[in-house]
């Protein structure tokens, strides 16, 4: 007897929270068939001696709904051990959608999530009108990892109410139609429904997107529809009372959360979450580090002036040549000093010149502190960093999760998971899609906030449970063979960089990893030594009736 694949002698952390143990894993027909001592040979074998073996990671918050059309490998998350990604978050989806409504849905995705509308319109096949048809189209794309989806409030409401969906409350008949469409979408495979109540999320004409002001009774009715099918309600910008109402109506609830920078905010936030949620099936997610806006010579230039505006039009090579010229540099410094009074300087951090970005800096290493210590202006520091890194160096503006100590304390809550990488969205502004690598390398290995077993559980079986997936997230016989083989000592994210690989040449940040010896998706080796193999064994995961 032989197996399709045997992973030999790794330190297996199975995703349940159980202690690590040395074991082999056998895979046949895309399923795990044995965990323990495997005597039979594999047609392919991976030597995992000295390596960590975990379930594949489950990403609960992406906006890869469009990018999957032109990047079926789903980078960067597939470089970071993610084997299952959830699409359709924040109320924004491309289905249901009548042909005439495609430009509007694409435009709303652009204004809310910073994904270029022309890339969306040209990069997807747009061969569907209902949500089931969208999932069928994804089947034809053959993704490299597994994807699952939620149906979004914006598209559903607009399909039923048209222009009234932006501001009016649904009539009883319209609410019945909304619930029927949500139920049909779930019957065709959606795992649930997403909504967005964050008022600054605007449509192109400046109005808040459909669903922002929907009465709570509308969400309760939808939650009853979703809950009757064992589904998930995802929300952003919703108050605790609205979140509780959706859970009390019978649905699992997933929502985004934040933490303040002041001392005690983390533990206070954890206590608040635990009391608010109680015994309800509600799960919060949060970014894994300080985030908000990344910039440097290769991307956004933070200064204004005639000279800055001139080099802004150049590519990276042209910008580098310009700042190497002493006269040009003097002009840039003179113009840039006018902006050194920014209040944001206290939340800007230099990500360093090493192979990996330094996201772990204490709050007292911010740019204002560096300026006071060195006597240099920000523009001088910016240009020195650019010259030292060949223009690749980056600065990070921490708008969210500014204090990592408080974030670490918040992670103590049993009701919050490290996640919120936002892959596919804000692609020229942030790069948090390496969230899973950061959890293991920083919060587990370097900081010890989680034990190895608990850290793995929180990015594997815990999010799989939130999605209602019972056959993934754990290394056990009968489970789908989504597996990572990792050199934990070497695990790290590499420096982000700007590439222009979206349709039409639009820019985005990408970020690779080091330390993934193998990522296996449904039994196929998707990543080997941090690089794609060309095998695409991902599946479109549909709700099981």
Description:
The chain is α/β, with parallel strands linked by helices and 545 residues long. 31% of the residues lie in helices and 21% in strands. The chain contains 17 helices and 24 strands. The strands form five sheets. Strands 1, 2, 3, 4, 5, 17, 22, 23 and 24 form a nine-stranded mixed sheet that branches. Strand 2 and strand 3 (31-36) form a beta hairpin. Helix 1 (102-113) crosses helix 2 (117-123), helix 5 packs parallel to helix 6 (216-228) and helix 16 (452-459) packs parallel to helix 17. The longest helix is centred in the N-terminal third of the chain and has 16 residues, at 172-187. It is globular. The two termini are 35 Å apart. The model has no long low-confidence stretch (mean pLDDT 96).
Largest sheet: 9 strands, mixed
**Low-pLDDT regions:** none
Radius of gyration, in Å, reads: 24 Å
User: Approximately how much helix is present in the residues?
Assistant: 25-40%
Mean pLDDT: 96
Category from helices, strands and their pairing: alpha/beta
What percentage of amino acids are in beta strands? 15-25%
Total DSSP E strands: 24
Treating each run of at least 4 consecutive H or I residues as one helix, how many helices? 17
From the N-terminal CA to the C-terminal CA, the straight-line distance is 35 Å
The rough form would be described as: globular
């Amino acid at each position: 007897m032989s197996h399709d694949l045997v992973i030999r002698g790794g330190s297996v952390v199975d995703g349940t929270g159980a202690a690590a143990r040395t074991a082999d894993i056998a895979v046949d027909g895309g399923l795990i068939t044995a965990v323990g001592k495997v005597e039979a040979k594999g047609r392919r074998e991976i030597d995992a001696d000295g390596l960590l073996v975990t379930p594949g990671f489950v990403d609960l918050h992406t906006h890869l709904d469009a990018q999957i059309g032109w990047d079926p490998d789903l980078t960067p998350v597939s470089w970071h051990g993610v084997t299952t990604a959830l699409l359709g978050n924040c109320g924004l989806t491309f289905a249901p959608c009548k042909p005439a409504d495609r430009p509007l849905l694409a435009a709303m995705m652009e204004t809310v999530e910073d994904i270029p509308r022309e890339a969306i319109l040209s990069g997807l096949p747009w061969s569907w009108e209902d949500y089931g048809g969208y999932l069928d189209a994804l089947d034809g794309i053959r993704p490299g990892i597994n994807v699952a989806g939620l149906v979004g409030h914006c598209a559903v409401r607009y399909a039923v109410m048209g222009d009234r969906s932006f501001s009016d409350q649904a009539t009883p008949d319209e609410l019945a139609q909304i619930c029927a469409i949500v139920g049909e979408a779930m019957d065709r495979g959606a795992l649930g429904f997403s909504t967005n109540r964050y008022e600054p999320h605007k449509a192109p004409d400046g109005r808040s997107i459909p669903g922002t002001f929907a009465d709570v009774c509308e969400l309760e009715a939808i939650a009853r529809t979703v809950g009757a099918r064992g589904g998930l309600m995802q929300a952003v910008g919703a108050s605790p009372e609205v979140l509780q109402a959706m859970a009390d109506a019978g649905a699992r609830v997933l929502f985004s959360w934040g933490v303040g920078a002041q001392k005690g905010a983390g533990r206070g936030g954890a206590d608040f979450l635990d009391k608010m949620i109680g015994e309800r099936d509600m799960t919060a997610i949060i970014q894994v580090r300080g985030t908000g806006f990344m910039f440097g010579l290769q991307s956004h230039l933070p200064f204004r002036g005639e000279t800055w505006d001139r080099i802004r039009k150049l590519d990276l090579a042209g910008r580098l040549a310009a700042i190497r010229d002493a006269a040009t540099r003097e002009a840039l410094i003179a113009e840039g000093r006018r902006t050194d009074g920014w209040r944001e300087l206290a939340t800007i951090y230099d990500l360093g010149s090493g192979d990996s970005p330094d996201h772990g800096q204490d709050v007292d290493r911010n740019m204002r502190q560096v300026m006071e210590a060195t006597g240099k202006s920000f523009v001088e520091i910016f240009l020195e960093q650019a010259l030292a890194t060949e223009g690749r160096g980056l600065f990070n503006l921490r708008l969210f999760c500014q204090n990592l100590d408080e974030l670490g304390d918040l992670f103590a809550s049993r009701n919050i998971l490290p996640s919120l990488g936002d892959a596919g969205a804000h692609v020229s502004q942030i790069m948090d899609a390496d969230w899973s690598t950061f959890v293991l390398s920083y919060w587990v290995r370097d900081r010890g906030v989680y034990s190895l077993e608990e850290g793995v559980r929180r990015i594997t079986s815990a999010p799989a449970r939130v999605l209602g997936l019972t056959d993934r997230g754990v290394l056990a016989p009968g489970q789908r063979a989504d597996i990572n083989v990792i050199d934990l000592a070497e695990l790290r994210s590499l420096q982000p960089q700007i590439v222009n690989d979206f349709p039409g040449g639009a820019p985005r940040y990408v970020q690779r990893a080091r330390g993934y010896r193998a990522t296996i998706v449904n039994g196929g080796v998707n990543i080997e030594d941090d690089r794609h193999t060309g095998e695409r064994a991902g599946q479109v995961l549909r709700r099981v009736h």
